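Format notes (please read before filing issues)

Several people have asked whether sequences and structure tokens are stored in separate files. They are not. Every record keeps both together, in the order shown below: the sequence lines, then the token lines. Line labels are part of the format and must not be stripped during preprocessing.
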Amino acid sequence: MLIAAAAVLVPVLGFLMLIAPPSLRCLALVAVVTVVVGLGEYYLDNRAILWLSFLSAAGFGALGLLDILGSRGLRRGDIPACFFLYGLFVVYLVVVSLANFNGAGGLAVGLKIYVPMFLATFAFIAVGSAERLIAGAERFFLALPFLQFPFAAHQHFFVAPTRGVSSFDAIVGTFGGNMNGGGSNASLMLASIISILVAIDLFRRGRLGAASLGLVCGVATANILLGEVKAVFLFLPVLLVLANQRLILKNPLLLPMLALPVLLFSAIGMAVYENSYWSQNDQYFTREGTRLEQFLGYFFEDDYINYDTGEVSRGASLAVWWSSATKDPVVMLLGNGAGSTRADSTIANGRTAALFEGIDVASTMLTQLLWDSGVIGAALFLAFLAAIPAALYRLAGQKANADLGGSLMTFYAVGLYPLLSCIYNRYFTDRPSEQLLVAFLMALVFLTSLPSRARRRVPAAVPVASLLRA
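Then the structure lines:
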């Protein structure tokens, strides 16, 4: 029945997307990746549904590319450095993966996590201008906390209590995961932080009222507090300072003004976490010392491996790679090929995963990149990620972008998050929603880099269907 329904709906939806304007396609793609797929993975316990994100990104990206090629407004310009570095990384990864060929299925699974989601960049570029892209993103992030709250509340009060000691990562909103074995709660944290940053920027520029600011930030904060993501106490203040970096340099008194609400949030957050999670799960904390010492110990320990659950601390995952890589300089430099650490694939698992069966040796983006592509590939990918905020910071300071400066600085701070989190988790080389965010930022760099005079004349790209009628 489900297959028959899909056989009817997919062609119909495909035709509708063919004639839809680029902005509507982007909204559909974001909805699929951040809502449909996440809820299906979480509540239906279906990891195979993740393929819908990758296929949708590739499909919408292809349509966007056709739109761009058929649009006179979106003229060719200089290719931003991030595009060049990403293309270089993909070529390098394909060569390394072919040299370590693990079958057609293994190659497909490996490249799936590095290529399709970034093709969505073309779908975002087809919107036509940085102004339209930013306006749509701001509306989305203002509405996102209200979409997430009902799901986060249900997961906190009804799902997490059944998980006992392992309930910390069960609150994910619509971002997916396995309610019985871990979810993307850090994705919910990041989405909530971005919503707060966007709301503050719009309020500062007089485009959002005080009541709306309080409502958006209040609901976003509630989503954070309903989950248990200790990293929020680091990332929220850091990203808030980075988003207001230029203003702080001009007026240093702004820094203590920002520090007061952050300290208040941290105090409330710590109290809520202690009463709702930590004090009720003391068996989770097996190390001696204060809570901070316990958290830092788990993060940096280079020998914590739980063979029962397969959990490996961040420090231990890097130590395991170093211990293995020093015995084989070729693997250290070049890696084992895309997808080598995949242990839960529905099609093919990787060779590295087979060597360390039962434990997750790639618990961070950095270690996954090192195993898959070696030191060379990891350096290329991190350089690609660094080129995005570097470009946004430069563009935000240009007079031609004075009307976009605040928004560009907000997304500059967001663009630094993948680099800051490379030793925290592997979401930017694993989770579709984070990769879609990078695709959006790449498109923003491209559109903002267009000459300002040309950008003002750029209409949204013409839907590809109209080209077929021409």
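For reference, the curators noted about this record: The chain has one domain: 22-278+296-469. The radius of gyration is 22 Å.
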